[in-house]
User: Fold this.
Amino acid sequence: MTSTPTAGSQGIFKIATVALIQVQTVDLTSNGTTYDVTVMSGLTTPQWKAFIAGLRDWTIKVVGLYDQANDTVQATLWANYLAGTVNAISFSPNAGTNAFTGSALITTIPLKYDVKTASTAEWDFQGTGPLAYA
Assistant:
């Protein structure tokens, strides 16, 4: 079976049901911890450590052009950040066919202003609870 790559430009990032416009990149990271459950065996031969699955977490970083005047979602994100509001987020990497969904808090909003380029904003989210994919 052959696979078909997805162009990055097909991505859609939403807060609730409203798309954030002018998004340039989305970095989604899902992490899993493990717990070392290795015990003494009394053997002299080389030993292997044993692990069990631990807790999971996820983060998402969204970078786009800064435009709070024309993008109402950007203004909403700023207000949610100040209030500590949990955001319902979704990210579809393939034009809405599939999506990662979950609830997340905004942890940082770096704004970048440079005379040589367009102003950008980043929104760093920490997932709270599971990250689903359908």
